[in-house]
Specification:
The chain is an alpha+beta fold. The chain is about 55% helix and about 15% strand. The chain has helices spanning about 5-60, 70-80, 165-170, 170-195, 195-205, 220-250; strands at about 85-90, 95-100, 120-125, 130-135, 145-150.
Length: about 250
């Protein structure tokens, strides 16, 4: 294969590898950003529902007496396309209010209740859906119950994730892109060095003021050697004639 064609294939391969990795990175980044936006919306909804529940607690209502929560969660459910259901449950893990009326009075999923022990949002990812939730407290900072949103879609970034998660998650593709470009650059440099070796050798022969008398085997170097020999003969002849003229000058 000709060096120029090999060089073109290497460069094209490097460009294709970089383009593929970049496209994959862009797709992953877009998905991560979408998940972050969705997560922010979920967090906003949870904070609003928690604030409403804690406002009711602050005026002395028990969870069973917060009938307004049922209407609130149903309105929020209607305005959120990704939300499958909203459940409000007590400290014992029993659903008190839900957009799915058939779930009222039933026990929540086992993993939900332990999350009431910590004062931060939580996420449980499953197949085709995920659940995000938070607790709500009384005036003493003790958990009165919890609120859970069941959402569409695959597991996404948890509420409160570090914004740098996008870069960390795609570090492999970034490194792969850089390595592909580096490999293409190294291969191109080596091929270029090999393909120009005979020209560099010929240039070195032509620039040598005292070329070797034995011609090299490589055709281009042999031509360069022959030309260098002619130039050397011309230089020698010119020097000899100059000296002859000087001798004639001296003699006259």
């Amino acid at each position: 294969m000709k060096p120029t064609r090999s060089l073109a294939l290497i460069v094209a391969g490097g460009i294709l590898a970089a383009a593929g990795a970049t496209a994959w990175f862009d797709a992953e980044t877009t998905e991560r950003v979408r998940a972050q936006i969705s997560s922010s919306k979920d967090g906003y909804l949870l904070r609003n529902l928690r604030a409403a529940a804690e406002a009711n607690v602050s005026i002395g209502l028990t969870l069973d007496q917060m009938d307004g929560l049922q209407g609130l969660i149903e309105r929020e459910r209607e305005g959120a396309e990704d939300v499958l259901s909203i459940d409000v449950f007590n400290g014992s893990g029993v659903v008190v209010y839900s957009t799915d009326r058939s779930a009222i009075g039933t026990a929540v999923a086992t993993p939900w209740v332990p999350f009431l022990a910590r004062d931060q949002a939580w996420t449980i990812a499953g197949r085709g859906e995920r659940v995000v939730g938070t607790r709500f407290d009384n005036d003493l900072g003790v958990a009165e119950g919890g609120i859970a949103l069941t959402l569409k879609g695959r597991g996404a970034a948890a509420i409160g994730d570090d914004p740098l998660a996008v870069l960390r998650a795609n570090a492999v593709s970034l490194i792969a892109t850089l390595l592909a470009l580096l490999a293409a650059a190294v291969a191109s440099a080596r091929l270029l060095q090999r393909s120009t070796a005979r020209f560099r050798a010929a240039a070195a022969i032509l620039s040598d003021p005292e070329p070797a008398r034995t011609p090299p085997a490589e055709p281009l170097s042999a031509l360069a050697s022959a030309q260098a020999q002619r130039w050397a003969w011309i230089r020698t002849t010119l020097v000899e004639r100059q000296k002859a003229l000087e001798r004639l000058d001296d003699a006259s």
